[in-house]
Amino acid sequence: MPVPFTLSGYSTALFSTWYFIEEMGLLFDAGDGVCSALTQKSRKINHAFISHADRDHITGLCQLSQLNAKDGFPKIYYPKDSGSFPALKSFLDKFDPHISGSEWIPLENKATVQLKPDLMVQAIRNTHINVSPGIIKSFGFKVYETRSKLKPMYHGLSQQELVNLIKTQGRDELHEPLHFNILAYSGDTPTSVEDGEKWADVKVLIHEATFFKSDAHLIQNERINKHSLLEDVLEMAAQLKRLDKLVLGHFSKRYHTEEIEEQVKKACTYFGIKIPVYCVLPGQTQFDILNTPSVNGI
């Protein structure tokens, strides 16, 4: 099933993660190398939504701000309680005093940002960083497309009657907005202990899958930030009835490409995955991901 946007990205745990949606001018995370990979296309980035302040998700902001700064852009959104972002902004203001334009905007949980009249992004708190429930330091994000639908009370009217009402009352009075979750990005998050239903209405999901279940002991340390297990993500995806495509990334460099692909194929078969699954493999920048062959051959 074709999608109306072009998704490119790089995602290797500990090193760098970023995903760029060209038609939306939208970036999820800004790991090292994002501008050098996208070159001139990086100038299309107007909105950068950063999931959390780990170095592999933010170091590309330095060059992004320096290369792309223009009046009011890029806009950089981040979890409101993460002090690393104001600190980084302060450093960049001193390091590049001749650069101005970029805006740094803290977000609350479930805050929405309107990118275009028909496009908005919502921030969704996750528990990658182990803090108390009232503190917000890590996010996933949902992208919604807004369409309008004729209100039920006007069903059955002729085309001419509708035209006349629009002239007297305006189009907005006759229609109601409908929001469709066309894309979501998990950020780093421990899927195995979170409610997967938060992705129940999404069409394309980008989700981290850092470790295999055989290495589950690596996420048990309470002192480190939490990540997902590949098999847990695929088990969750198998239960999401409206999901059309799944993109997996943030794999640990401990795994080889062939090993990851084999494990994904095996888990897709085991959980009965019926949708295309794509992998952003360690050390590889991938362009137009959703138009490349899926790992599971669907």
Describe the protein:
This protein is of the alpha/beta class and 298 residues long. The protein has a single domain (7-291), classed as Metallo-beta-lactamase, Chain A (4-Layer Sandwich), CATH 3.60.15. 23% of the residues lie in helices and 26% in strands. The protein has 8 helices and 13 strands. It has helices spanning 34-38, 55-58, 61-68, 84-95, 159-169, 171-174, 230-238, 257-271; strands at residues 7-12, 16-21, 26-28, 47-49, 75-79, 103-107, 112-116, 119-125, 139-150, 175-185, 204-208, 245-249, 277-279. Strands 7-8-9-10-11-12-13 form a 7-stranded mixed sheet. α7 runs parallel beside α8 (257-271). The model has no long low-confidence stretch (mean pLDDT 90).
Properties at a glance:
Metallo-beta-lactamase, Chain A, 7-stranded mixed β-sheet, 6-stranded mixed β-sheet, 8 helices, globular
